[in-house]
Batch of 4 targets.
Target 1
Amino acid sequence: MRRPRISVSETSLWRDRPFRLTWTSGAVSQFGDRVSEVAVPLIAIGLLDASAAQVSWLTALAWAPNLLGIVLGAWVDGRRRKRRLLIVTDLVRAGVLLSLPAAYLWGTLTLGQLYAVALLTGLAGVVAGCAWQPLFARLVPPSSYVDANSKFSAARSASFVAGPAVGGGLVQAIGAPVTVVVDALSFLASALLLGRIRVDEPAPAARIGAAAPALLRDAREGLAFVVRHPVLRASLGCCTTVNFFTFLAGTGLVVLFADRVLQLSPGAIGLTLGVGSTGSLLGALTAPWLSRRIGVGRAVAVGAVLFPAPYALAAVAGGPAWAAAGCLGGAYFLVGLGVMWFDVNLNSLQTAVTPDALRSRVTGAFGTVNYGVRPLGALTGGALATTFGLRATLVTVAVGGVLSVLWLLPLPIPGIRSLADLPAEMPVQSAGLSPLDNPV
């Protein structure tokens, strides 16, 4: 299959205007998301007196739409204009978020509305995620996947540094519901930036076979490719395991832990999470260096361990406010370092082994399992926290999450040194695959 025309110079991604605009769009919306990740749980905790179980439901509903990812990915693969889909989802999320401050000002804000906002923004996010990888592959040449993912992840990591601190400060100054306006405005800005991008988006490839309804058939092809491809199958097992365990805590229960157990103020919570998240920025910037030093596959494995393990450090936080905040911030620093080493290298590897004609379907199928387990993790975490306490839940996150690395130990992932070493075609199990199911 012929590779698409590449719009980005292999030597300098920053020189390409579409890449710069896309990067800026993502950076702005990620910053807004980090503000909301502090503000929305504090609406539930501070204004609506939500319990640990209710906060966990908020997280679960935000991720529940990923259970539809396999079908949504197939639907997105059939759409030509992925950029337009990203713009629409930005506008939808902005409108939904603005309903929170509006309801607050009218005195009608309820936990049910918070749940609805979490569900709808989550659904728009799944569609956006399925549309993102095909657009990424049109903007970036394969040799620059790790570098480009590093740049996007650096923006995301910077949002984890600044966003919680700004969010916590705004919550303390103007209240949590009004603070959500920042996230809504970030989505509007993102949509405007994406609207200025011009990128060649070819018509979707013709579908093969007509034995089943087209959408279900396409969804099945995406899932079959993930399950039968050795790299995608191993990475799916690892991601699903680490996501289940890390979502036992999730952002909501971490904020609850900081608020009710450590007794930190909203400003202190935001500042602690923001300072701790400098590890994410460092991880994003050093992920290409790590992959060159030890290989892409081994860098993924190192990240898989370092990502969940520091939750055990967070579990022992206590004492004076400065000591508790320092311990929690240190744990978050290591978590961020690990998650970026994991994400940057694994996302690049997955993009490299996925054929163009299947990108949205593979993303949707992968996300259905990988992200779909997050609501289950969040609800389980709420039950654990209610029964055994928040500290015990954080220890469970660390122990269970580290076990995810067992999926990566067998070949081929540990032996992959660089994306350039990947064969043009990597063998997959051949039971009933169509011609689209061979990576190029």
Target 2
Amino acid sequence: MAVSPIRGRTAIARATAYNSLPNQTDSTPFITATGTRTRPGVVALSRDLLRTFPYGSKIMIEDLSGRYNSALRGRVFIVEDTMAARKTGSLDIWMSSRSEAMRFGARQIRITAVR
């Protein structure tokens, strides 16, 4: 998996959260599109955003509403998964439980490449 040389590139996207339930993923709910195991810090991007932030990209996420920034601030996430083909302009953050993912909800975010 190559690391992206796009430091500083940004995009605005819709963010949601997912966890490893078969109805939220494919038939291998704990395995990402790159073959790694799901874990905190893993994100899935829609296929259109993968062109800008390819697998292996390290990113930071800012909640544009400001409500969830305390949980996101200072964290570096890694792009290791992808979303269903029908999704565009979207990011999914892996979370360990369904209730945590539901609390996150959906929000507008800014993605910034850090490496």
Target 3
Amino acid sequence: MTREAIFERISELIKVQMHREDLEITPETSLQDDLGADSIELMEFVISVEDEFGIEITDQAIDHMKNMGDMLDYVVQRVN
């Protein structure tokens, strides 16, 4: 799966999670600052990503993710 395809799928998951199909997601997008996701929404999103890609995202890894680019890097490393 290409990096671009993974990013597109993650972006779609966020849009569905946030009930906002109009969101413009970039690698610099911060889930908490730009999207206003609370801790429950963030955890639901992480679970969706784990289920979609068949990976586990540790709490430590989540703590180090500042933006969508960090999430993308993590997923790409585990999927490919």
Target 4
Amino acid sequence: MRDSSLTGVMVVVGVLAAASAFGWWHRRRDGRLRAVGPPSGPAADPELPAALGIRPGVVTLVQFSSAFCAPCRAARRVLDAVRETLPGVHLVEVDVERHLDAVRELDVWRTPTVLVVDTAGRVVRRAAGVPDRQELIGVVTPLLTGADR
């Protein structure tokens, strides 16, 4: 009997340790801006950038969101703060339900997803979750000054 109760405790401890490790990993990754390897156009469809409101020659932050997404409101506040801090940044919010073709084309799996699009129309960074304001400013500033990432 003693062995079976010890086994149960070990299973519970193992599950708690695995859940804690996953939670830590997810929290560290959520909202981080990741480089998009080799910079690509917003999509294979040449009309998609204009349909989303991406203007050529302007650094654009594109947020994919949905009506019932609470983190989307927090991401919008962060993006608004970045736009107020850095003049010249254009902000576009895309409703995932209305633009399913863009969601598929740009491989958006969750909301909010934020794309940083440079002046050439290339997606250079992306974040799934609410991005950090300072990290976003650090990524966008060189794009505004014409410096490469």
